[in-house]
Amino acid sequence: MQKIFMTLALGSMLAHAAQDKKYILTNTQLLEAAKVPALMSDSKTGMAVAHISTLQESMLIRKSHERGRCAGFELLPVQDFTQKDFQKILQDVAARKVLDQKAQKSFKRISKKESVVAAINQVSAAEIQNWVKWLSSFPTRYHKAATPNKHVEALKAKIDEMLVKYPQVKAETSLIAHQSTPQKTLRLHIEGNKFPDEIVVAGAHLDSINAGFFGPTGKIAPGADDDASGSASLLEALRHLLAQGSFERSVEFFWYAGEEAGLLGSAEVAASYKNQSKKVVGVLQLDMTLYPGNGDGKIVSMTDFTSPEMRNLLEEINRMYLNIEIINDECGYGCSDHASWYRNGYPAIIPSEATFNQMNHNIHTEADVIDSKSSFEHAAIFSKIAVAFVSHLANL
Ligand code: BES
Ligand code: ZN
Fold first, then answer.
1. Of ligand 1's atoms, which has the minimum distance to the CA of residue 74?
2. Does domain 114-394 have CATH number 3.40.630.10?
3. What spacing in Å lies between the alpha carbon of 193 and ligand 1's midpoint?
4. What digits encode the pLDDT tens for the residues 314-346?
5. Which residue puts its alpha carbon closest to atom 22 of ligand 1?
6. pLDDT at residue 10 in the model
7. Which residues sit opposite 329 in a β-bridge?
8. In degrees rounded to 5, what are phi and psi of residue 130?
9. Which of 70, 208, 328, 353 has the most ligand 1 atoms within 8 A of CB, as the residue to mutate?
């Protein structure tokens, strides 16, 4: 009897462990360093799919940290995969690489708009500071917190209040519920007056996390830099864009749910946009804007899981309006919500505060707060980029 009980208990433990295994997309170098076998890999792109246990997950995280990275992999949002699915995932990565090489031939040139110059001159570091202060004052914005939507609903109310001041703008906020997380994504839709079916997307993740070596700790997670800062840079850009009144294309702002748990909110949003054949002309992601790790006035453009035509637009915007130094760097995996859009075939970019090895190392801890190294002028650069990105992409 006891033996049967023990066998049953062991069986259920093993079943549980198997259930806890996750499918990930990452690069082969990291898998080799952590001695985790790949289920399938592609030598041309250097990317691989693996099925990992919690133990292997912490090994990957440790190896990734040693290389100055965060987790170092992207969770694939499904429980069961077949060989064919792996092939498709890796083929998609390779196909996008080819498309990206072709896209380089059709770079968009922009001409200076006085309205953008005026808006950029009015971007306020103090406004961004207020938003970061407010967002990081919630004890946590973790997607599985006791009240995972408290700050989401509070921000919706603040944006709705802001919209009242611009009655001429056709704008509407909504909360998007998800399958993979109890947290909701907040969206603001501004209807285009000429091409309403074509959408320009600008986003940041609103959730935060306190993550130890063995997963989330449940401790406080102020997430001032990651990513109250990107959320705040976006809110300041929104203020100036609303003042412009209308756009030819539709514009959508997103404050995503559950990014820190594997791009959960954006993965669902981007997949559903693709299923509905929605036309998204460009995606800007702001994730970490507050810490000038490479020095004042120097920012980074991540070159992986992003599109050359969008990176070129960022360079154009810089030449036209900012004249700062943009350093190219790589995450090495889909490190933020831009990757969800990119994986669904939409062109995306992520300008960010610093190179991976110079970025803020207090993220994902209770020490990610506003401190002497925080620079709201640095965060203001990203609001300016968002203003120019939306103004140029949303009007022909
Ligand atoms: N903000 C980080 C990633 C990041 C770092 C973006 C540096 C830009 C520059 C993000 O919130 C994060 O922690 N992502 C996870 C991956 C995600 C798929 C869970 C990571 O990097 O481990
Ligand atoms: Zn982040």
1. 18
2. yes
3. 35
4. 999 999 999 999 999 999 899 999 999 999 999
5. 71
6. 41
7. 302
8. -60, -45
9. 70
Strands (E), the chain: 22-27, 40-42, 47-52, 74-75, 171-176, 185-190, 195-205, 211-212, 215-216, 249-256, 279-285, 298-302, 325-329, 348-349, 351-352
What span, in angstroms and rounded, lies between the C-alpha atoms of 209 and 258? Answer: 9
200-234 pLDDT, tens digit each = 999 999 999 999 888 899 899 999 999 999 999 99
Whole-prediction pTM value?
0.85
The answer to whether residue 84 scores a pLDDT higher than 90 is no
Cα–Cα dist 37/194, whole Å? 51
Q: For residue 378, what pLDDT band results from cuts at 50, 70 and 90? A: very high
Chain centroid to Cα 297, Å, comes to 22
Phi, psi of 351 (to 5 degrees): -75, 140
CA of 306 to the centre of ligand 2 (A): 16
How far, in Å, is the centroid of ligand 2 from the Cα of 162?
25
